[in-house]
Amino acid sequence: MVERVAALEQDHSPSAHAMGSMLKIRGTELQQKMSEFLVESLGDYGAVAYPAPHAEPAQPRAALPMEETACGAATEMFFRRATTIYGGTSEIQRSIIAKSLFQF
Predict the structure, then answer these.
(1) What is the rounded distance in angstroms from the CA atom of residue 1 to the CA atom of residue 8?
(2) What are the phi and psi torsion angles at 47 (to 5°)?
(3) 25 touches 94 (CB < 8 A)
(4) 30 pLDDT band (50/70/90 cuts)?
(5) Residues 6 or more apart in contact with residue 64 via CB below 8 angstroms
(6) CA 47/CA 5 separation, integer angstroms
(7) Which of 16, 32, 40, 60 has its CA at 20 to 30 Å from residue 5's CA atom?
């Protein structure tokens, strides 16, 4: 889809802006759903606050279950929620789509 948007932009197609906005909306929604799915599939382990891998612990600790898989999953999920905001909210992108396709 990215290649299609680039080709439309080169041809100065009026639908290029709409396609770019559609790509942004779809991509951010998929990112959010995948990160939410990962946290949900980890169950209780997805909600644990794991230390950063490079941080030195104040005291030695036992390895946490599923630490390699779950480390940062919740943080990633919360970060991905912002993807519908930065770069233009999804509502603004939908407005661009309507204006481009329906000539408002």
Answers:
(1) 11
(2) -95, -5
(3) yes
(4) very high
(5) 45, 48, 50, 70
(6) 38
(7) 32
- What pLDDT was estimated at residue 34? 93
pTM for the full predicted model: 0.66
pLDDT at 48 over 80: no
| Three-state DSSP string of the chain | CHHHHHHHHHCCCCCHHHHHHHHHHHHHHHHHHHHHHHHHHHHHHHHCCCCCCCCCCCCCCCCCCCHHHHCCHHHHHHHHHHHHCCCCCHHHHHHHHHHHHHCC
d(CA 38, CA 34): 6
Is residue 44 over pLDDT 90? no
